[in-house]
Amino acid sequence: MTIVLVGLPGSGKSTVGRQLARRLAIPFIDSDQVIEQRLGCSIREFFEREGEARFRDIEQDTLDDLTRGPTVVLSTGGGSCMREVTRAFLHERGQVIYLRSTPEDIYRRIKHDRGRPLLLVADPLQRLRDLHEARDPQYRECAHYVIETGRPSVSTLVNMIVMQLELAGHLPVAAPR
Predict the structure, then answer these.
(1) Distance (Å) of CA 79 to CA 9, 22, 33, 74, 153
(2) Whose CA is closest to 52, among 108, 109, 131, 126?
(3) How many independent structural domains does the chain possess?
(4) Residues 81-101 pLDDT 10s
(5) Residue 99 domain-assigned?
(6) Would residue 177 count as lying in a domain?
(7) 112: in domain
(8) Which domain holds residue 114?
(9) Domain containing 158 — which CATH number?
(10) C-beta of residue 6 within 8 angstroms of C-beta of residue 13
(11) Is the overall model pTM greater than 0.90, yes or no?
């Protein structure tokens, strides 16, 4: 069973995903890293050269491939749920966890990160608000679980995810510590 993390750019998908994979002793895959390996350049460069629509085609194909493989924790790009077909196969093939953050929380975390093409605008906080408004319904449609990230530590978020998956019967219940 693949565990898929979705959410806005900067919501913690990669950071939480790495720790979750370590905790469950399964591999971690960041789909953006796989896409960059396939492209031979950064997503930002490709985005600027080829545009968003072409990037989404490649993202969809990559996620299709990655969700057909062995059990992993899969961190997706912020726009991974924009297409209906992608939402459908992510939902069908994995347990999808939406790491829901407010635009303000994300902005505090990533305001100095220049590697995020969709945020390289005059008003990144407003861009995050717009993205949240547009994508929140898509993430919710795709997700099996919504985890409010707020201010908990990464380890607390990992514990929350593991608990949800255990309660739903998707993981064996951990032995008492």
Answers:
(1) 8, 25, 15, 14, 24
(2) 131
(3) 1
(4) 999 999 999 999 999 999 999
(5) yes
(6) no
(7) yes
(8) 2-167
(9) 3.40.50.300
(10) yes
(11) yes
